[in-house]
Write a structure and sequence with these properties.
The chain is an alpha/beta fold and 241 residues long. It is built from seven helices and nine strands; from the N terminus they run H-E-E-H-H-H-E-H-E-H-E-E-E-H-E-E. One of its GO terms (molecular function) is endonuclease activity.
Length: 241
């Protein structure tokens, strides 16, 4: 059997009639798990792919999990756009779909390992800056490949044997609360973070850290064109796209 016409149309509609990998138009519905291996003709097993992506990755069993993750991410994004369209009637925004020239890197089998050691004299601001630059450099030089961060911390212990404020905030808030979506996995002293969704590759261009985020600094950031503000404990970080 094959997908019913109703299932194929629904899968295409959920994907805005775009490939869930490269976002190009004109798609066919691919079985993520092949029929020969018991793959069902159900929506959950359907992935809208263009002919190029189908030829490159459709037959590779090692890519099935990634294809499913990327499909789910793309379907969620399209659904959010449709909801926004209903609220704002901004049809032009919904129709703007850009393709990534380096999207192929997402499905490369081997990832990029990033390593940073925090030395005793290094504080939160320095560490956050080093890690962000590593992340940005990895995306610039090896676009979209899976990224694995390994973090070591020298000293930075409090009187109870735990991490001091800076290094706890770096791990608990900055990495787990902010940068985790941009990595596939993060290995740090507090534990391991594994990203269950498709790794994000829209890395912020730069990060500024403010000791005190008040209305004046917010207005100044808005004037500079800041796109979002992230607040963690005592340190305030602003991300610029």
């Amino acid at each position: 059997m094959a997908f019913s016409e109703k299932t194929k149309l629904l899968a295409k509609h959920k994907s805005a009639f775009r490939c869930c990998l490269c976002h190009k138009p004109f798609v066919e519905i691919h079985h993520i798990t092949p029929q020969a291996e018991g793959g069902a003709d159900k929506l959950d097993n359907a992935a809208p792919l263009c002919s190029s992506c189908h030829d490159l990755y459709g037959g590779n069993p090692e890519k099935r999990k990634t294809i499913r993750q990327m499909r789910d991410y793309w379907w969620d994004l399209i659904e959010k756009r449709r909801k926004n369209l209903t609220e704002t009637l901004d049809i032009e925004k919904f129709c703007e779909v850009s393709t990534d020239k380096n999207w192929e890197g997402v499905l490369r089998s081997q990832g990029i390992v990033l390593y940073h050691a925090v030395f005793e004299e290094e504080g939160f601001e320095d560490s956050a800056g080093h890690i962000h630059r590593l992340l940005k450099s990895a995306q610039d030089n090896t676009p979209n490949q899976k990224r694995f961060l390994f973090l070591d911390i020298d000293s930075h212990r409090n009187e109870n044997g735990g991490f001091d404020h800076d290094m706890y905030e770096l791990q608990r808030h900055f990495l787990l609360g902010f940068l985790a979506p941009y990595f596939t996995e993060i290995y740090m002293p507090l534990g391991v973070i594994k990203n269950e969704k498709a790794q994000r590759n829209d890395i912020p261009e730069r990060i500024e850290i403010f000791e005190d985020l008040n209305q004046e600094s917010i207005n100044e950031a808005i004037d500079k064109g800041v796109s979002s503000i992230w607040v963690a404990d005592k340190d305030k970080l602003m991300t610029f796209e």
